[in-house]
Design brief:
- The complex is a heterodimer.
- Chain A is mainly beta.
- Chain A has one domain.
- Chain A contains three helices and 16 strands.
- In chain A, 35% of the residues are buried.
- By secondary structure, chain B is an all-alpha fold.
- Chain B has two domains: 53-188, Cytochrome Bc1 Complex, Chain D, domain 2, CATH 1.10.760.10; 193-331, Cytochrome Bc1 Complex, Chain D, domain 2 (Orthogonal Bundle).
- Chain B contains 13 helices and two strands, in the order H-H-H-H-H-H-H-H-H-E-H-E-H-H-H.
- Chain B has helices at 2-17, 53-63, 76-79, 131-136, 145-153, 158-166, 173-184, 193-198, 208-220, 250-253, 285-295, 314-325, 330-334; strands at 235-236, 262-263.
- In chain B, helix 9 crosses helix 12 (314-325).
- Chain B starts with a helix and ends in a 7-residue tail after the last helix.
- Residues 1-26 of chain B have low confidence and may be disordered.
- Classes of the chains: A mainly beta, B mainly alpha.
- Chains A and B meet through helix 1 of A and helix 1, helix 4, helix 5, helix 7 and helix 10 of B.
């Protein structure tokens, strides 16, 4: 037996073993922990109460909200040194009628101080056209269009005396990912470097966002319910998405 | 000795590396997804939905389960009938629960694994999610996913079938849709006389009128009804109406130049899929050919190739019809593997 043959035989399993392993993520931190985000749903600073409370849009028109649901996905955190961490499989559906959905937990996040958070309001392009999904993306949640594949990113239903629709209904189903009517919007906010998001093995911080449902109707274009009271994707959905892109979320504080 | 041990180890590791092969039950015919040699690579390849006999069996059972619909009378198989290549025979437009009439003609179901988009307007983008509309449409099955999940959870033998197919009694919409796709994506129709001639199988050849029809077809139809699927999967108007009652493609794209355009339909098994067109307006191939000969309307988005129609004399029509009938795949239509058993 030649020595080289021994080597070959040895090499074989080593190569095979290493090829077996899934290519590791580029995460370098060796410790991981979790943090949570609370989404406090409001309308212009008052608590969001479904079905009963009357609010006013920027045009001074009265409206009530019966349904308010939205997706937050692809949450990405940045450190001061510029490194970022995209939380894998981060898809969350926040539903104002389900208290437990308004507080989400992000697990297995590399420990460290984060000074910026960004996420998609809605669902990324690929998942809109992917095969059957489960969890937050399960079509059972009523946020998937069955006749025009894709998710409803933000759903607000309610009533306004100004709406000419049957029952004075307001139907805002915002979604669509293809140009010219792409409604995917990314929200990002800096975190005060003096009080960053401190993910620690012994500390699980909570970020508190205020969410203003009325942001759908103001910002870039003040919407009057007498003319825009129903949209399910398309040009009008883009108007609404452009409104809420910056105004929907505001980071209020962090409990470290 | 050591060399042998090492070699053995490496072989063992190689084995562990490769995905565990499916256990083949000897008595049962193994369900396979086979790509005919004259077809390109499929779009859907079961990568995230491993095909198994148990998954196929479950999907097929759900496909033929009428108790899923609101009035327990309509299954997928009511509108997608095997003897009609999985379209609904004799129905201009789909016929669902409570005798409700839908707005579009039911498309046949085969070779779906090669489609990138579904429905006449291409609104649905994945084979797995394409049953959802029928399930929830008030006019088709008139139910909702939650009701179906609950029904399947509480109805034997479904929990067992899910266990066999996916290794757990968990039932959710994802697994339901994946099992249905194991049935619908396996429906491959590629054994028509045309295919056998193309693949030069045995001594099969076209008759002289079939051959003449094929040549006419290549000259006049193939730019839209492209081989081997007899559609190029594009959206076009073939001049059915001056003003289409159905928006068609523009309903999805919102683009005015797509108004009144529909997916070019496959012509495979066309002998069995009447009535024809998105609204099922024509009952016979003669009517269809006469439409191309003399009935084309100058709709705003009429395809440029059809501006002057497609003149066809009686002989040419007969020859084209003879060719179209070579696209019938009797083995597919009669395959008991796909039948409600």
């Amino acid at each position: 037996m030649k020595l080289s043959q021994y080597f070959l035989a040895l090499l074989c399993p080593i190569i095979l073993l290493s090829s077996c392993k899934k290519s590791a993520d580029e995460v370098t931190a060796d410790t991981k922990s979790s943090f949570s985000i609370e989404f406090e749903n409001q309308v212009n600073g008052s608590p969001l109460v479904l079905n009963t409370t009357t609010y006013k849009n920027a045009k001074g028109e009265d409206f009530k909200i019966n349904v308010f649901k939205y997706y937050v996905s692809n949450i990405k955190l940045s450190k001061a040194d510029g490194t970022t961490y995209l939380i894998p499989e981060s898809y969350f559906l926040i539903d104002a009628s389900k208290e437990e959905s308004t507080n989400i937990t992000l697990k297995d996040v590399p420990t460290g101080d984060y000074i910026k958070i960004e996420y998609t309001i809605g669902v990324d392009y690929a998942r809109n056209f992917a095969g059957a999904q489960t969890g937050a993306l399960d079509p059972i949640n009523g946020m998937f269009w069955t006749w025009n594949s894709g998710y409803i990113f933000v759903k607000l239903e309610g009533t306004s005396p100004q709406s000419p629709a049957t029952g004075n209904a307001l139907t805002f189903h915002i979604g669509g990912v293809t140009d010219p009517n792409n409604t995917i919007r990314t929200f990002s906010t800096e975190i005060n470097a003096a009080n960053p998001l401190r993910v620690r093995t012994d500390g699980k911080p909570n970020m508190h966002f205020k969410v203003n449902a009325a942001a759908l109707f103001t910002g870039k274009t003040d919407i009057s319910f007498s003319t825009l009271y129903l949209t399910m994707g398309g040009v009008n959905s883009v108007i609404v998405a452009n409104n809420y892109a910056n105004g929907l979320f505001r980071l209020d504080h962090i409990h470290n | 000795m050591t060399v042998f041990a090492m070699l053995f180890l490496s072989i063992a590791l190689m084995y562990a590396c490769s995905k565990s092969e499916e256990e083949v039950t000897p008595e049962e015919k193994k369900i396979t997804f086979s790509v005919p040699s004259n077809f390109p690579a499929p779009v859907y390849n079961f990568e995230d939905n491993k095909l198994s006999n148990a998954g196929f069996t479950l999907g097929k059972k759900i496909f033929y389960e009428a108790r899923l619909s609101a009035d327990k009378s309509v299954s997928c198989g009511s509108c997608h009938q095997q003897f009609a290549a999985f379209t609904q025979l004799d129905h201009k437009v789909s016929h669902g629960v409570n005798n409700c009439q839908g707005k579009r003609n039911t498309p046949p179901l085969f070779n779906l694994a090669w489609q990138k988009a579904f429905f006449w307007d291409g609104g649905v983008k994945n084979i797995e999610t394409s049953p959802l509309n029928a399930i929830t449409d008030a006019c088709e099955m008139g139910t909702d996913i939650q009701t179906i999940v609950t029904f399947l959870k509480n109805t034997a033998p479904y929990p067992d079938l899910f266990k066999q197919a996916f290794g757990s009694t968990e039932i959710n919409s994802q697994l339901i849709l994946k099992s249905i796709a194991q049935f619908t994506a396996v429906l491959v129709s590629g054994n028509s006389k045309y295919d056998k001639v193309m693949r030069k199988e045995g001594s099969i050849s076209f008759s002289s009128s079939e051959l003449a029809g094929y040549n006419l077809f290549k000259e006049k139809c193939i730019s839209c009804h492209a081989e081997p699927f007899f559609t190029d999967f594009s959206y076009r108007s073939n001049g059915l109406d001056l003003l289409s009652a159905d928006e068609g493609r523009s309903h999805i794209t919102g683009v005015a130049s797509d108004f009144g355009k529909f997916r070019v339909p496959t012509l495979r098994n066309i002998e069995y899929t009447s009535p024809y067109m998105h609204d099922g307006r024509f009952y016979s191939l003669d009517e269809v050919l006469e439409h191309y000969n003399s009935g084309i309307k100058a709709s705003t988005n009429l395809d440029v190739q059809l501006k002057t129609g497609i003149p066809l004399n009686i002989t040419e029509k007969e020859q084209i019809k003879a060719f179209l009938k070579t696209l019938t795949d009797h083995e597919f239509i009669k395959n008991t593997l796909y039948s409600e058993s």
